[in-house]
Amino acid sequence: MSIIILLFALTVWGVVHSILASHFAKDMISLKLGSADYYRLAYNGFAGISFLPILYLMRTLPDQKVYEVPSPWNLAMYGGQLLAIIFLTIAFLQTDSLSFIGLRQLFEKEKSGDLVTRGLYRVVRHPLYTFSLLFIWLTSTMTQNSLTVYIGATLYILIGTVFEERKLLRDFGEAYAEYKRKVPMLIPGFVFGRK
Fold this sequence. Notes:
The chain is mainly α. It has helices at 2-21, 23-33, 39-60, 73-93, 97-101, 127-137, 144-172, 174-182; strands at 65-68, 141-143. It contains eight helices and two strands, in the order H-H-H-E-H-H-H-E-H-H. Strands 1-2 form a two-stranded antiparallel sheet. It is globular.
């Protein structure tokens, strides 16, 4: 029953999150309010806060251990998670971090950002997704509930990248198409990551 509840919660969260991430939702808010200057900040805040119930359910619903990686191998996994956090931070800082969060829009008129192709973005198109997935899958103790959430999050990210790629193609046109031909989507060297 825990798996069903978690999958339902993840599905609802994913659908709402995806709808709110669309240009359509942002344009509708802009029409209603006359401006969407605070949209990105509100969207990020809502996404984070609305995911907290899923984390709560993951911790409180009946659960059982799937596996636990013994020492010293768990230390290697912790090291991998630490590297994932470091690379996540680097990738985040290589974007316009204040705009990404939505804080810059509080002080300046929102403008179209630049296509980031430097740093980690030269190796993989979506380093934030890549290193987030690396972090969760290097968990050394896996339970039924965490496995369910990690599978759901992975599917959401994989599906979400398809929609994000379309949005980026629409926003950046040929520049993104060229970048897409050169750089893999999530995993460096993964042949299916290129088109």
